[in-house]
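Backbone shapes recur. Consider a single case.
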Amino acid sequence: MVDLVIGSALAGRLVLFQKIGAARQKSAVLRQVLSLTLTLLLALSIVIAVEWIVRGEFSTVPSYLFSPSRPGFTTIGIVMLTMLILDAALGRAHLSVLIVAPLLLVPAFISSQKQNYLSDPLYPSDFLFARQIMELMPVMVRDRRGPPRHSPSASLRPSPPSPFCGAMLGNTPPRYRKRRA
């Protein structure tokens, strides 16, 4: 008796899953619409994240998206179109998020960090001068920290090497070298 009840419950679930599967196969249009909606939501979330990172606050993002004088919807459309093209090229739905999201979020983060230090956004010419920027970063960070604070660990810092340290190691400074005859 118990076996019949469990068997009929499993058969009922199996029939339900078969109906759902048949409905899903019949509604290929619905699947495409759901996939496009998901791509739209992913593009929207990427654009919102980029704007939030670059602007530093979320309160200005809705005005960017809904203002007719700003390209919020156009940006979402371009990101969505790029994602659809990459999905078609890769042959897998929504795989393009793994490519598009880092390509948009990393420059947004770099731009926000540059604005913290120099109050300028990231320009395309900055990529040409990336080597010089990387050489300037330690100087900018040191200047941003301000004057050194006195702390108990300050006395534990090593002192700069004297010119005589090199003489002990065999590397004498030029003014102490003997002239060879």
Remarks:
- Residues 126 and 133 are 8 Å apart (CA to CA).
- Helices lie at 2-26, 28-55, 61-66, 72-90, 97-118, 125-128, 130-145, 163-169.
